[in-house]
Amino acid sequence: MSALVVADRILTSGKYKSVLSLIKGFRNGAVYGAKIRLPHALVITFLFGQGPLVKKLRLILQATYTHSKNLASFVLTYKALLLLLRQVETSQKTYHSFIAAFIGGYVIWGKFNKINEQINLYLLSRILYGLAKLAVDKGYIIKPSGDVFPWFAALVWGTVLWLFEHHRAVLQTSLRSSMTYLYHDSNVWHSLRDFLLYNR
Question: Is the pTM of this model over 0.85?
Answer without folding.
Answer: no
